[in-house]
Specification:
Tetracycline Repressor, domain 2; mainly alpha; 77% helix; flat; transferase; membrane; EC 2.5.1.141; 2 domains
């Protein structure tokens, strides 16, 4: 009888078969969570009642569409991901999932999410979701990411559109409020990613991605971070003056923007030697703050939309 080791097939150089977690990773769940949250807020603050089941289906479809974009991104970017320390362990470059499988999954989920959103809500929202997937997978991933230092700036539109999709799914129409939500995410995206690029800069250079840190240097990147932080603040505050805002949102937004501008100013004042000496401490802090910045802004919009807050604000206004 031949002695078969339990480790056979793992120690002979072959890659283990993909598991459920690998296919889930193709959908970029962390990125998808941001898409889901902003879309959910867009749907909940819209001035139209939505049946809970319809709302659930709408957000599920938007989440699946976001995941489809991630799978298509990983299919196309497998060569880049393989050269970056931060991404080389992803399923496609690591060899656990075939590129064709990622492509097939992305295409199938794209079609399914758009079709189901159209059937569950309206075809206007479905067309916006289709455009969002197309913009991220084709315009950003296949073109902008490899061709221009403005990749994050222009490509950020794809990640900014979900709250508009959520709003249109509820109302079937455009309005100023969701576009300001889009503008908030759009203006937030560059300083968020540039702060990250400052302390993982070698990754982008090794992969040949023309991130601003590689094409224009750290000094220009620091200048851009501060400029965008200053431009972001009035957009965030303007949202508080619309029908979905209010005093709670405005108070929180003022505090968040003061902290964000202060953090960007600290990053701007530093030179490369200082940053390297403390292992990019200020840059890492700004990146972490940027995550809380967006989450809390949309969280405050949800707070403003709750019936209790609406009643309290109405009572204060009456007094």
């Amino acid at each position: 009888m031949t002695d078969v080791s339990l480790n056979d097939g793992l120690d002979d150089g072959r890659t283990p078969e993909a598991g459920f977690g690998d296919y889930l990773a193709l959908l970029k769940p962390r990125v998808m969570s941001l898409v889901v949250f902003t879309a959910l807020v867009g749907l909940l603050v819209a001035p139209a009642p939505v049946h809970p089941f319809v709302g659930f289906v709408a957000i599920l479809c938007i989440a699946i569409g976001g995941g489809a974009s991630g799978a298509l991104n990983m299919w196309w970017d497998a060569d880049i991901d393989a050269r970056m320390k931060r991404t080389r362990g992803r399923p496609v470059p690591a060899g656990r999932v075939e590129a064709g499988e990622a492509l097939g999954l992305g295409v199938a989920l794209s079609g399914f999410s758009v079709l189901m959103l159209g059937l569950a809500t309206n075809w206007f929202a479905a067309s916006l979701l289709a455009f969002t997937i197309f913009f991220y997978a084709v315009v950003y991933t296949m073109w902008l990411k490899r061709s221009t230092a403005q990749n994050i700036v222009i490509g950020g539109l794809a990640g900014a559109l979900p709250p508009l999709v959520g709003w249109v799914a509820a109302t079937g129409a455009m309005a100023l409020e969701p576009w300001l939500m889009v503008a908030l995410v759009f203006m937030w995206t560059p300083p968020h990613f540039w702060a990250l690029a400052l302390f993982v800069r070698s990754d982008y250079g090794d992969a040949g991605v023309p991130m601003l840190t590689e094409t224009h240097g750290a000094r220009a990147t620091r200048n851009h971070i501060l400029a965008y932080a200053l431009l972001l603040a009035p957009v965030a505050l303007a949202l508080g003056l619309t029908s979905v805002g209010g005093p709670i949102y405005l108070a929180g937004s003022i505090a968040l923007n003061a902290a964000f501008v202060a953090g960007a100013a600290r990053v701007w004042r530093r030179d490369q030697a200082t940053a390297e000496a403390d292992r990019f401490l200020a840059e890492r802090k700004l990146f972490k703050l940027s995550l809380w910045y967006l989450f809390l802004h949309f969280g405050l919009l949800m707070v403003e939309a709750t019936p209790l807050v609406v009643r309290l604000e109405g009572a204060v206004a009456w007094l």
